[in-house]
Amino acid sequence: MKFVTKRIHAFLDYPVALALIALPFLLGLGSSNPLALQLSVAVGVAALVLTLLTDHHLGVFRVIPYRYHLLIDFLVAVVFILAPFALSFEGLDGYYYWINGIAVLIVVSLHKPEVAD
């Protein structure tokens, strides 16, 4: 059932990073706590840098092993799921983080293990 390959994941990384930067402004996040907007933008910038540095076919510098990239994605998902509780995000602010966190957990959990070369 695991079908998200390294290649598919690489194609998802850039648009997701850009969405994390742009969507908070488009959705008007930050009504319950200004950190709701700022956290997403900061994670989006970090995700863009991570993608540029990841060792996959769309990485530019390829210095971070892909398995570490997946670990970081998992940790970000956990932070996103916990952030509404820890930072008192309510309404759309909270739903935004829960939906994104769950989506990232699903993608990571559906990752197809790589075949050794």
Automatic annotation (TrEMBL):
Residues 9-106 form the SPW repeat-containing integral membrane domain. Keywords: Membrane, Transmembrane, Transmembrane helix. InterPro entries: SPW. It comes from the Bacteria. The chain crosses the membrane at residues 12-29, 35-54, 66-89, 95-111. This is SPW repeat-containing integral membrane domain-containing protein. The lineage of its organism: Bacteria, Pseudomonadati, Bacteroidota, Flavobacteriia, Flavobacteriales. The keyword Membrane applies.
